[in-house]
Design brief:
Shape: elongated
């Protein structure tokens, strides 16, 4: 899944430093994920 580039996330984190840790954790989770479909399993929007 390629919605965002890592560069875009890095630039956002530089502009909004409070978001840095959450974005890094999200990036790690996404990189390690092996999704077979895009159906939402949990969480809320």
């Amino acid at each position: 899944m390629g919605i965002f580039t890592e560069q875009a996330l890095k630039e956002y984190a530089e502009k909004y430093p409070d978001s840095r840790v959450a974005l890094q954790e999200w990036t790690t989770i996404v990189k390690q994920s092996k999704w077979t479909n895009y159906e939402r399993k949990s969480g809320s929007i």
